[in-house]
TrEMBL record:
The lineage of its organism: Eukaryota, Metazoa, Ecdysozoa, Arthropoda, Crustacea. It comes from Penaeus vannamei (Whiteleg shrimp). SUPFAM superfamilies: Ankyrin repeat (SSF48403), P-loop containing nucleoside triphosphate hydrolases (SSF52540). One of its GO terms (molecular function) is ATP hydrolysis activity. This is Putative suppressor of potassium transport defect. ANK repeats lie at residues 116-148, 185-217. Coiled coil: none annotated.
């Protein structure tokens, strides 16, 4: 009760009633000076008045006022920043360059946003202030930044206020020319300049690198808002120049840093698969492809060998990390006939009609996306019929009767069909490659060119793989729509060692970041862990082997106190050198052991977490 009374008294001192005449501080003065100063004066006044009261009562009151003082100081810091930004945005609205320069010197970010979403550049462009636009661009304003203001109704709901209040702020602090009940989210400064019908501002923005191809929430480009033919022609001309310039820059970038190199930074091995996919993508990017049909791939190989990752890297390369550009459909969700409706949307009168289809809805957002159909062999035959139309015509009609054109999309199907046959065939290829490498090392020049022929042979494709595919899909026309069937082969020994090293480096980083533990390993550990590779489970078998044989020991040692923060862990293995030692191990893998050096010690000490656990159990 005493705490509550003290806090109430503190509040009354901070915010005195307008009817009170005996207080020095009036309510109207609080609005003109920092709240922390008001709080400090109230604190001093309360301290002076509290000397005659009881000590316990004053202490409780002092705590409440102290908390208020700290809160007021933090609020003042944020309030000053917000006030400066609002004044900067208002200066841009009226084109007051000297005022904008003053606030930039105070540390205001040139790309700061109004609480409702627009920037100074948006405001200057919407109000036809070309000199202000030029000043903002010169000081680092982003010409391609999009407005996050939607419309007065949605913003009012988000901020729990009335649409009338939002409209008043939008007109008073942004622009009075527009109907603010319309959707503006996604509009750039170029959109607003075209809406304002200001050719000078448009030219300034275009010369500063504004992208005329950016679309707003309604998928409208700036040129779509032009009201006269001359401006539309100018915008189209600049759009063509921008596209040509962008293509030239992308071509130069591809020449310096080819797709194969980018993918190899993320994927180990699979040289043939990467080369096949990169070649097809290169044809598409440079205009050497059939524009009436989309690119279609079928990735074959065992699990955990890089099929999904390669699809992700293609999307990353083509769309520069845009999230909606990669669509992943798990085809195991479409095994029943009635689930086909989820794919393209339910017909009229059925449940889910208004929601649209899971594929068509995403393709409408990004018609040139990279679409991954994972484990396509699990899909119902009716889904394959839809895919057949998609691959053949490059368009899809949803449950509402709307057609989505997606001829620029890339469709990738993954499948585990014939994975055992491909794994066995790949193992034979690896053995052949090892023999040729050995012959080359021994200096037989007649075998030097043979490595070029170590690829998946046509006989293997036609006699072994194709019958399996035909038996499952039961339609030649479906297989005939596939541009490239890409084969993912098992990892070689050198690739396995790279996988183990990558996995160990991941755990080294985690040990350092989370536990302040330094980890090192003997090179022989790589060979021992690589022996845990299972050709049917791919890279996942390496991951599980490292976790099972090494990370389990580290976790147990950490829990037992054998490994502590600040120490160094050395991982090693004992490879049997004599026949007797080999006989003891028989088919068991060589054990992974750890040594620990504490923070202040000079030497490593071998630890056995399992023995420590048994000792604790006793």
């Amino acid at each position: 009760m005493q705490w509550s009374r003290s806090l109430t008294q503190g509040r009354n001192l901070l915010f005195p009633s307008p009817r009170t005449t005996n207080h020095t501080l009036k309510l109207k003065e609080i609005n003109r000076i920092p709240l922390s100063l008001v709080c400090w004066q109230a604190f001093q006044r309360s301290r002076h008045e509290g000397k005659g009261h009881g000590r316990s009562r004053w202490k409780a009151r002092e705590v409440g006022l102290s908390l208020g003082l700290v809160t007021a100081f933090c609020w003042d810091m944020n309030r000053e920043k917000n006030i400066n930004e609002r004044e900067f945005l208002l200066a841009a609205m009226v084109g007051n360059i000297s005022r904008m320069e003053e606030y930039l010197k105070k540390g205001v970010d040139v790309n700061c946003r109004h609480p409702y979403g627009w920037t100074a550049l948006h405001s200057a462009a919407a109000n036809s202030r070309p000199e202000a636009v030029r000043f903002l661009l010169k000081n680092g304003a982003d010409p391609n930044m999009a407005d996050t203001f939607s419309n007065i109704y949605q913003v009012a709901r988000e901020n729990r206020t009335s649409p009338v209040s939002v409209e008043a702020i939008r007109e008073g602090e942004f622009c009075t020319l527009f109907n603010h009940s319309r959707m503006f989210r996604g509009c750039t400064a170029l959109h607003y300049a075209v809406l304002a019908n200001d050719p000078e501002t448009i030219q300034i923005l275009l010369d500063s690198g504004a992208n005329p191809m950016l679309e707003n929430e309604y998928r409208f480009k700036p040129e779509d808002y032009s009201r006269d033919t001359g401006m539309r022609t100018m915008m189209q001309r600049h759009s063509e120049k921008y596209i040509a310039k962008q293509k030239k820059e992308e071509m130069e970038e591809r020449r310096k840093f080819p797709l194969e190199q980018r993918i190899k930074q993320r994927i180990i091995g699979q040289e043939g698969a990467i080369a096949t996919v990169a070649g097809a993508i290169r044809r598409k990017e440079n205009g050497w492809y059939d524009e009436e049909h989309p690119l279609v791939f079928l990735f074959l190989g065992s699990s955990g060998i890089g099929k999904t990752e390669l699809a992700k890297q293609v999307a990353e390369y083509l769309h520069k990390g845009k999230k909606s550009s990669f669509i992943r459909m798990d085809m195991s969700e479409y095994q029943q006939k009635h689930e086909v409706a989820k794919f393209i949307g339910s017909p009229p009168g059925y449940v889910g009609h208004d929601d649209g289809g899971q594929l068509t809805k995403k393709l409408r957002e990004c018609p040139n996306a990279v679409v991954l159909f994972d484990e396509v062999e699990k899909a119902h035959p009716d889904v394959l019929t839809i895919l057949l139309q998609l691959f053949d015509e490059g368009r899809l009609t949803d449950g509402k009767g709307k057609t989505i054109e997606c001829k620029d999309a890339i469709f990738i199907m993954t499948s585990n069909l014939a994975s055992d046959e491909i794994a066995e065939y790949g193992r034979q290829l690896r053995e052949e490659a090892d023999k040729i490498s050995k012959a080359r090392y021994e200096g037989q020049p007649e075998d030097i060119e043979i490595t070029e022929t170590i690829t998946v042979s046509r006989r293997f494709k036609e006699k072994i793989v194709r019958p399996i595919l035909k038996s499952h899909f039961q339609r030649d026309e479906f297989l005939g729509r596939i541009n490239e069937i890409v084969y993912f082969l098992p990892f070689s020994r050198s690739e396995l060692l790279r996988l183990v090293r990558m996995e160990l480096e991941k755990w080294v980083k985690q040990a350092h970041d989370k536990h302040n533990i330094e980890m090192k390993w003997d090179p022989m550990v790589l060979d021992v862990l690589a022996d845990g590779y299972n050709v049917y489970y791919g890279a996942r078998s390496i991951k599980h082997e490292v976790e099972r044989r090494l990370v389990n020991q580290l976790a147990l040692a950490y829990e037992s106190g054998l490994v502590t923060p600040g120490c160094t862990v050395y991982i090693y293995t004992d490879i049997p050198s004599t026949e007797e030692e080999k006989a003891k191990l028989q088919d068991s893998p060589a054990p992974i052991k750890i040594r620990v050096r504490s923070k202040d010690a000079d030497n490593f000490t071998e630890v056995d977490p399992n023995s420590a656990l048994k000792a604790q159990a006793k």
